[in-house]
From TrEMBL:
It comes from Cellulomonas shaoxiangyii. This is Putative endonuclease Z1 domain-containing protein. It comes from the Bacteria. InterPro entries: Put_endonuclease_Z1-dom, WH-like_DNA-bd_sf. The lineage of its organism: Bacteria, Bacillati, Actinomycetota, Actinomycetes, Micrococcales. Residues 526-736 form the Putative endonuclease Z1 domain.
Length: 943
């Protein structure tokens, strides 16, 4: 049984592996975690700068190259290789690498190729020094000579430069700095206090999100006497650490950091329910967001996206943002809190409770819900003039928003008032759903924003697929993204559908998937099992964790109200039978059968048990205390009253999707057919939240296709965050990410509703093949050496149905690094796009997954294929062959082997040994890669 809690030893090992240069994917595979989770753990341990990772990888690469250099020189010195090409073939690399690593020693054995008595002009010296300075700054003689020796640059030796000009004089002539003079100035010019001073000035000027790569740009313009960014990093350490120290006084929150009354008051509450690490992250993110607002930049109208996880505590971040904004002088906070009154009331109550607006006696806050009318405008204006902060929770509805815009338009000098607009679940209802004109809610948001020019608009969502793919000039397209990190103990899609799937996931047969219109005559068997699991789990949970209540179950079968009503009737009838059985039970066998069975399932999966008498007693209590709620648009229910009883079963559809929090949810039953929209399906997973200690009691019932889609969405979600973070950190924008990187989606799915985003380009992965290979001798030799290096020619044959083909297994990372990246082929050709293939492999969620590399040949001979001068090989892949040999299986065809027929998401590599029919004597190797069934979606060019 897996240990539910992460240990300090594990986190320390992960941190040390990352510090040593290990890839996030490799670390994740070693510990059974995702790439994004490894990134989070490393961040929680203090973070590792990319420069440090790059340095560690560089050191490892240097060691590997040193070993390869020794092998190269050995085969040359012993006479086994008499040319660079021969040496490359013998050691399994390319000729350019041999020349680069061999350096002077190689030319000594093989003979120098440089014409004798080269004469170097002053311009040659200057040019060589300037090129070398792009590799290292300041430039030392040793570093320069290494570049010359390895062939990276062409120029005179450092000794020759010393003879001709003198090293320092030559560097000065070239306009670069030599390391000796720089070291002297470096030691004598700046103290550590000076360095901290300049770092603080930079952050004060550019904001808390100031990137490391922007320091030198700022220094040149604003502080020419300041040291370079390299000096800062060498003397003070990693930039993230420098920035964190300046902003947060290390890893703890202090009164010097939170100077505002509202922030300090809220922080006192957060201390009681959050660990320091999570609390600091909350405040850091909201401070970063507000740095983009008009109170810091002087410019209004910015749109930001706060990207969280489903049920990860976005409301806490919203509350902190409101408190910090009030401290910064924002006097109006508009909160778009949902498209239903149920959501509006739920979220409004939470905000008011956290801010204390209804209980405080300092008269700091005024709440105006869905304001309208001239009298309200006068009241708001008076409150603002009196220095109050006005919280305006509003329904995300065109009529309500237009009324609010009209109210604010009447507030005196509203153009001078700093306004924060928060759009919760921003990808729902806010976006433009009309292709010919503006939809009503979208238009209302535009009008509202135009009435308050000095505003910051912040979108909150866990499913950002639509906002990120909007046109760059769209009103709601984000200018920046803030990545919200969940607190410790968060249990999300990764835990449910990947890490602990064996303990949590339960299968609903496809035949029990709810049809669109036909109500069930009886409860599906899987739902009876789910009810039994909920009752048994609740009985065990309340015994071992008495304060766990409320405990809830969610039944999500359809969007149709009449079908939901039928489910409510059937569940209520079943519960009545169970109460009768439990009231008279004297043994566990007298309880409903599914309750006893599910008790066994839960305890086998890790839930602690109780004795039989106690179990019977708690089952009676659970059944007696269970409240059944029907939550849909026709029910009169405006609010689930969680405090009425400790046990709840909720039945509903769309109203229980986005934004709705099911308190204490342990069992989810979802036999509704899965949506093809990523954002819609992900939002149905209400089971997530801070319940790591309750995970043994959690069960998720759904069909296999729903579970597969939800699992694949986990990989989409973490890929999105990783790729977008990397792209933005490297200086890109949301819009360039959407255009150049994009989303990686599961098969058959799309990011969101078609009416919301347009001009999307879909790149299906599937098969890519080098149909038109290079025919020159060097390319043929290089590709053959690659196949030999991975051991393909000596690999044992594997039976693929009539055909025995040599196969070797290597990791996904090795496929990219050892095969695809080195394969001698044009970057662009028929059926082959090197960039797309490389990107798809690099973005695979498990870099250490082993995949087959198969040598495609006919009984040890190359296959003959027709050749077209424009498109290359015709019918490179062999089709299905139903002929069976010795009673064995038929051959399914090249495109189906390697487990592709059973799992279309499989990665398979084939190296085809082929010859042209018009030139059968010349055989060559060409490459084909099956990249799985996912697809990359990018923003296309707008019309």
């Amino acid at each position: 049984m897996r240990n539910w809690a992460t240990t300090q030893d594990r986190d320390r090992q992960i941190y040390e592996m990352r510090l040593s240069g290990a890839r996030l994917e490799a670390i994740g595979h070693a510990f059974g975690l995702t790439r994004e989770r490894i990134r989070q753990i490393v961040g929680q341990m203090g973070g590792v700068d990319r420069e440090d990772v790059a340095a560690a990888r560089s050191a490892r690469r240097e060691a590997e190259e040193a070993q390869l250099r020794d092998r190269i020189l050995a085969v040359v010195a012993t006479g086994l290789a008499r040319s660079s090409a021969q040496a490359a073939t013998m050691v399994g690399t390319d000729e350019a690498t041999v020349r680069r690593l061999g350096g002077r020693a190689l030319t000594t054995w093989l003979g120098s190729t440089r014409p004798p008595r080269t004469r170097w002009a002053a311009s040659d010296v200057i040019g060589a020094l300037r090129v070398a300075a792009t590799y290292e700054w300041p430039l030392s003689r040793a570093a320069y000579q290494d570049l010359v020796d390895t062939g990276e640059i062409e120029g005179p030796s450092s000794a020759r430069i010393e003879q001709l000009h003198g090293w320092a004089a030559a560097c000065e002539l070239a306009g670069i700095e030599s390391s000796r003079r720089r070291r002297r100035d470096y030691q004598s010019t700046w103290t550590d206090d000076d360095l901290w001073h300049f770092a603080r000035k930079y952050i004060e000027h550019c904001g808390s999100t100031a990137p490391f790569h922007g320091f030198d740009v700022w220094r040149i313009e604003h502080a020419p006497d300041a040291p370079s960014s390299g000096v800062l990093r060498r003397r003070l350490g990693k930039w993230n650490g420098i920035r964190r120290t300046i902003l947060f006084e290390g890893d703890s929150m202090s009164e010097e950091t939170l100077t505002g009354k509202e922030s300090l008051r809220l922080d006192e509450q957060l201390v009681d329910r959050m660990d320091d690490e999570s609390r600091v992250r909350v405040w850091k993110s909201v401070i970063d967001i507000l740095e983009r607002g008009p109170q810091r930049t002087g410019v209004g109208g910015q749109t930001g996206l706060a990207l969280g996880y489903v049920q990860s505590g976005k409301t806490t971040s919203i509350t902190a943002l409101i408190a910090a904004a009030a401290d910064q002088g924002y006097q109006i906070i508009v909160a778009l809190l949902g498209g239903t009154n149920l959501l509006l009331d739920q979220n409004k109550d939470r905000l008011e409770s956290a801010l204390g607006t209804q209980s405080r006696k300092d008269y700091r806050w005024v709440t105006e819900v869905n304001p309208s009318g001239a009298a309200t405008a006068k009241r708001i204006g008076a409150r603002i003039e009196g220095g109050r902060a006005v919280l305006i929770p509003v329904l995300k509805h065109a009529g309500r928003l237009n009324a609010l815009a009209s109210v604010l338009d009447k507030v005196p000098e509203i153009e001078r008032v700093p306004v924060l607009i928060i759009d919760d679940e921003a990808d729902q209802a806010s976006l433009n759903t009309s292709s010919t004109a503006e939809s009503k809610t979208y238009e209302a948001i535009r009008i509202l924003r135009s009435r308050v020019p000095k505003h910051l608009y912040v979108q909150y969502t866990a499913t950002p697929y639509a906002p990120l793919m909007l046109d760059a000039d769209d009103l709601l397209s984000p200018d920046f993204v803030e990545f919200l990190e969940p607190g410790n103990g968060y249990t999300g899609g990764r835990e449910f559908f990947v890490e602990f799937a064996d303990q949590v996931i339960r299968d609903v047969p496809l035949l029990e998937e709810q049809p669109a219109k036909a109500p069930p005559l009886e409860l599906p068997r899987s739902l009876v099992a789910a009810l039994g699991s909920f009752v048994a789990g609740a009985a065990l949970l309340v015994q071992h964790q008495p304060d766990a209540a409320p405990v809830s179950m969610l039944i999500h079968s359809t969007q149709r109200n009449d079908v939901q009503e039928r489910y409510r009737f059937l569940v209520e009838r079943e519960l009545r039978k169970w109460r009768t059985a439990a009231d008279t039970a004297v043994a566990v066998t007298d309880l409903p059968e599914s309750v006893g069975k599910e008790r066994t399932v839960l305890t086998e999966r890790g839930a602690p048990d109780v004795d039989d008498a106690m179990f019977i007693d708690k089952v009676r209590w659970v059944l007696r205390e269970t409240s059944l709620w029907l939550v849909n648009s026709t029910s009169a229910l405006n609010k689930v009253e969680w405090n009425v009883t400790p046990v709840h079963i909720l039945i509903g559809g769309n109203k229980l999707d986005r934004g709705f929090t099911v308190e204490g949810l342990t069992v989810t039953y979802m036999n509704r057919p899965p949506s093809t929209q990523v954002d819609t399906l992900e939002q149905r997973a209400r089971a997530f939240g801070y319940r790591r200690d309750q995970l043994p009691y959690c069960q998720f019932f759904a069909t296999k296709r729903s579970i597969r889609s939800l699992r694949d969405i986990v990989f989409t979600e973490y890929d999105l965050r990783a790729q977008l973070q990397d792209h933005v950190d490297a200086g890109g924008t949301v819009h360039s990410w959407a255009r150049d990187v994009g989303l990686m989606l599961p098969e058959g799915m799309k990011p969101t509703r078609d009416v919301v985003v347009n001009q999307l380009d879909y790149l299906a992965l599937g098969w890519s093949s080098v149909r038109l290979p290079r025919l020159n001798t060097a390319s043929l030799a290089t590709n053959r050496a690659i196949a030999a290096e991975i051991g393909l020619f000596d690999a044992p044959p594997v039976d693929y149905g009539r055909l025995l083909l040599r196969t070797v297994d290597i990791t996904v990372a090795e496929v990219l690094e050892k095969v695809v990246a080195r394969w001698s082929a044009d970057e662009y050709g028929p059926s082959w796009r090197l960039r797309d293939v490389s990107e798809a492999l690099a973005r695979h969620h498990d870099q250490e997954q082993r995949v087959p590399v198969i040598l495609m040949e006919d009984d040890g001979r190359p296959r003959l294929r027709k050749w077209d001068v424009e498109t290359g090989f015709v019918n490179l892949f062999q089709g299905r062959d139903n002929v069976r040999s010795n009673g064995g299986a038929a051959y399914p065809g090249d495109r189906a082997i390697g487990n592709i027929a059973d799992d279309s998401s499989s990665i398979v590599v084939q190296i085809h040994r082929v010859a042209r029919r018009d030139d059968p004597g010349t055989e060559l190797l060409t490459l084909a890669v099956h990249l799985g069934d996912r697809k990359i979606v990018r923003k296309g060019a707008t019309a």
